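Show me any protein, fold above all:
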Amino acid sequence: MGNGMNKVLPGLYVGNYRDSKDTVQLEKYKITHILSIHDAARRLHSDKHYLCIMASDSPDQNLTQYFSLCNDFIHAARLREGNVLIHCLAGMSRSVTVAVAYIMSVTPLTWREALKVVRAGRAVANPNLGFQRQLQDFETYKLVEERRRLKERYPSLALAEKDLSECRIMLDSYQTMLSERTICEGKCAMGRQCPTGVCRTASKRQPRPRKAAAASSCDAGATAMKRSPSTLSTTSTASGYRPRSSPAGLYSYTGGPSRPTRSASGLSVTRVTDSSGLGSAMAVGGTEYSRRRAASAPATPALSPASSPPGSPHRAPHRPGCSWIIPTVKWDPNTM
């Protein structure tokens, strides 16, 4: 997470909060637009165009309602040859979800394929289970309409062939990374989560078998608990293999699509445009106050006051009978 922002498509980068503040990286990759999505998303650079979305990294957080707005912001910037940075706090879940939704919308890829494209560029990409469910629901119920909407609003095909070609290259790269074990899909021989490559170590150790619990009268009388169909991708215990966890949280959602949730058709959006014309901002989510604060340009920080301003009271070293010492200051009316 600390290796800087990563390119996932031409003109599209994913990073974390630290990357969004790093002016060196922003200049290096010529970032012109920043999509900030986290609990306290706020405009940090007055010369950049911002879309600030206040959203938590919770499986219950509805991100689907923002996909169309994010797609417009990203696609319009790329068509104008701008470079877009999508970031959250860690650059793993919320920002990746938005990037995956965009790639799905401008290419024929499924959400799983789009996630692989992002992971090929940024190995820590890891939407939480709730966001993966939303991506699958988006693919099932809304993707066709969103693709049609984008084509009508942005009829230019300048990016279509290039994006599809780049995605194919990234998918091939992803398969190569899998074969070289530089990335993992959770098929870890040690049955552990391995964001840092536990499954790539030279050790041939196998997980210790768990000791069988001693049967008791309570166990005999207890009703066996049955696990409901899980949304996690696991190997059936009936085959003799223990379930394997996903890496880094590369959470694998394999459940069926849920029914589409109803959300407000209109989003409360606050827009701010600088008089200089160098930057602009849109803020979505939260309260009206938080949106205005997020979209406002950062104020120039004031200089730190002097530690001992001239003419201020000074206190003598602490001694019995010590009192305040007021320095003598000459007042000149001509200076007022």
Summary: DSSP finds nine helices and nine strands in the chain.
